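#dry-run=false #mode=assembly
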Amino acid sequence: MARPTARKELIGQSSDPRVPVSMTVNGERVEREVSPRMLLSDFIRHELRLTGTHVGCEHGVCGCCTVIIDGKAGRSCLAFAVQADGADIRTIESVAAPDGSLHPVQQAFRECHGLQCGYCTPGFVMSIVDYLEDNPDPDLSEDAIREVLSGNLCRCTGYKNIVAAFRRSAELMRGSR
Amino acid sequence: MSTRQFGEPIARNADAALLRGEGSFIDDIDLPGALHAAFARSMVARAKIRAIDTSAAESLDGVVKVYTCDNIGALDAPLPLLIPAPDLTHPKTQRPLARDDVFYVGQSIAMVVAVDRYVAEDAVRLIDIDYDPLPVEMDLERAVADDAPRIHPDVPNNTAGRFRVETGDTDAAFAQAEHITRVKIRLERSTAAPLECRAIAARWEAVTGELTVWDGTQATLSVRGGLASLFQIDEDKVRVIAPNVGGGFGQKIMMFHPDEVLVPLASMELGRPVKYIEDRVENFIGASQERTQIHTLEIAATKDGRVIGLKDDFLHDTGAFIPYGIAVAHVSSTSIAGPYRIPNFRVTFRPVYLPMVQVTPYRGCGRPHACYAIERAMDQLADELGLDRFEVRRRNFIGKDEFPYPREGLIFADGLQVIYDSGDYEEALEKLRQAIDVEGFRAEQAAAREEGRYLGLGLGFYVEGTGLGPYEGGHIKIHPITGKVYVNTGLTDQGQGHETVFAQIAAEQTGARVEDVIVVEGDTGAFEWGVATFASRAAVCSGNAIHMAAVKARAQIVEAAANMMECSQEDIELHDGAAWVKGTDRKAMLAEVATATNPLRYAFNEPSKSATQFAPASRHDGPPLAEGRTPGIEATDYYSPPHATWAFGAHAAVIEVDPELCTIEVKRYICIHDCGRMINPTIVDGQVMGGIAQGVGGAFYERCEFDEEGTPLNANFMDFLMPYATEVPNAEIMHSETPTPLNPLGVKGVGEAGTIPVAQVYASAVEDALRPFGIAPIREAPLTPDAIHRMLKQARTS
Amino acid sequence: MKPALFAYVAPQSVEEALELLASDEMARPLAGGQSLIPTMNFRIAAPSALVDLRRIGALNGHAVEGDVIRVGAMTRQRDLERDEAVQRANPLIAEVLGNVAHIVIRNRGTVGGSIAHADAAAELPCMLVATGGTVVARRAGGERTIAAEDFFLFHMTTALEAVELLTEVRIPALPPHTGYAFQEVARRHGDYALAGVCALVTLKDGVCSAVRLAACGVASKPTRLAEAEAALLGAPPEGEALARAAEAARDYATAADDRQASTDYRRDLASALVRRTVTKAADRARERA
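#status=ok
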């Protein structure tokens, strides 16, 4: 294969207009200038390089991109970065302790084999962390747990072990209170 | 003292990083200066392309290049037919970018490379494609008619080939039949839908002439071979890496999706890294799908329900192209007799071109089809002869003493004869029968009917030829400094837990702690030889290769440790990361052993001092590295299976049908599975449960739909109904363990198993529940509430 | 799947928002974005500008005032669902919201957004029709109140004019002696309803003194089942009256056959759901008595 002949000059970014945004992400203040159409998921992943937030459908069904926005779990593919101006965002990277030791929800997923490929996992973890912070004594019946989990798709596990991980999470979080 | 690693439910090595969001999926890889690709795709199913105007797209700010078939050089040719077969008389594969014709909605016509994906998509919309639409036939049965519009002008009857497999004397069996049962069944199109769509990134280093490709593929080594061949580069200059991959389920075993060749091309031409991250809609319309087959099956039986012969003729929808050959249909044909003796059968089939995205294997690969066909027929046979559904199966099982059970004349998907190697089908069914408490259920069912509630019991049995060749390899090396055990193989992992089960296999022999075993795969730079992850073969092929390499490494460790501690080899035992003198606390850490077996000139740490030239332990009469010896603890071996090894299992479910709302509730779902010896029961359960969930999708929810013009109707996650946690039953999973005699570990594959019988189980249960209404037998999957409504209505009016 | 370019503004007041929307007919208001943003990502919708309502304090918040629950358009669905005062005032709301998509979607999705989106199969519009709620539409220099039944015109079409913004949703509290129920059939939990029925049954001396029934998913808009209501009025909520109501409900299912359900199936569902929700609502009315 011949060496490149038509190498264009490095082009940095598109000609979209840029809008300043600033927000707190995982406790740190970030400021960027972004196109108004940049999805929050792309902002988190590509501007901030926090790639633990995954993108599975970009139409709000799969839940892989779930983050916590102003204290509530939400789809980052169904928000624009500009909408999060001034917001407080938590991503999967903030969940474990700074030394890397796992949060009870993460610990529970590991104990219960609640993940296989790991692509949907950050979304599940964020949904569950948010839910259990809001509902420290959740209904642990099978149906109730499955309803809570029903906003996230997993193609690998068949959910059984995620249900178990939810139960174990609640137990571990109660224990650590 | 012995610490078992093999067979233990050990938590996975890979989990912590994935849980912290530290996984490395393709789009997570930061390639500074990367450009982004997007595709203009056909909006019509079958058309002549009159003209393509890319000028507006090219002049858009931020667009670097637009590719069409006219500027991709030698790549403008049909992509490879991966598995040719003599009877595949009319094979067709697609071009990376359409030339003159398009064959399905979603076919790639042009590729835009731009500074970001947003602009690339803007440009795609500026590409003006002028189509001259042609008539299409979307119906599988009508498409084979003489007068049906042809997808490919030179393929009569849209038929890619005519195939026939036969064992025994089918006609003679039918001549002796006392009873013949006939069913016609249909499975619908579905798709693997891994949560990470397909993705690829490429970086060409002009100075060194090296091409690095990050590809979310199941087949790094095969992709490397193909790219080297297509671009005429030495294989050593192409490195293909599949880092974390977010599920594959077969879709990612298909190779040379158009982007897989075009993205490397663009990187080479433009001198920049290029990324293509497929989006969800593209995954539906542009990647691959699988499942539609229509079987017409007849079984010849004696009056007491013994099946003596079988005839099956089926049509297989292969989509617009057949790049993966007839693998799916072939597996269906050779799996059709399931766990039953059926000594005489004939299967004829035709793969048929339809103007939809190509069909390539999806978890199960032809087995769910075969299982649905034979199991629906067995249910019907039982009903017709007034036999119990369990009993009719029991009467036909291959007995546990009849193994190996060859099916003469039948060649499996690995090119080798079908020989069932081991199993105890009757025992598995009996365990299932007891677990579900069939007699208790029948009483409950009768009581429920009194209250106007309708419970049904469904049952499905399956076999799965797993662990297909040709071969895989394993390499093991103990790191002299850290004592960590590195294990390399040529496979890729999409979440199956290879890194843990392979670590267990290596740890079992070397005495390393499982967490100290580092498995490296999915990188052609890490292991040079092998094939890919598919056909439930990783544990069988790579697992045994790694085991064999580890046995060699063990011998090296024992010999070296015995020398170091001046004892006999019989006195050495390996565990907890060290070699121990039995019955003492004397030990040599694996790091020390690895260091001592590598004659050193320089010392870096304490253990290495003992391996340098003037250390007492290094004194030799001859050369430091004795003749014929290699340094360190390191071994490689390969495993090539004699033929597939046959796993099996049975599922049953209790389902309540609400005949008014036409909804179902799965009250119990029980599975018994046998994959020989289990390396890690937790991971086996996870594989089975995941398979069941995909089976549930295919049984009741998922179907890729198209209109009469060939336009996809539900190519997104809102309308393609992948089950959430609320739709998947909490299955009870049991095991039996019948080791295979075919390989040293006694293991069989498990990856696809769970998926296979689920559609049958649902159909069988709903049929049983609604028996009082006199509904017609269920013959199609997925079943839907609307279909249940139709059946009930039909039963009421007839 | 990335959206086309648009301009973005986040005004502080309703007046400002109205001005912005009036100045550009291709501009769209952005509430929770849970329905709009997917269509933009698919590029089915490509508004020239988004007028984000999140900074307008007047659109946030909700309160129970006497026998009306006033819900600011930007109130998140999950907040309304979890509010104990709202649950006390009208427990139907939480029951209905439990069927709207999933928790994480309801965390962002707004009440006003769902009502203005007016999907014919959506649960909230159906609830608003059943309860006899109203919406408040503001325009420059004025506002009007529109009854739910007059508001929903067709699938994704409302009486809202281009110069208007939906600012508030008013849901009546549950009247005394009244029971409620909502039930739907959806393919998956959280999906839009193939058919759903909302029932409010007021019992006096064992007979229905008032009945309100509405259905979603069965027609081109959320539909009041007037004939079914009439069949029950003045009769006990069971037996023959209930059978007549259920039968009458059938004819409201007019949606054409689609990929998930035939008209025929929807007719049967409407009927069965009316029977089940009326029975449940009546049971609850008795419990409350």
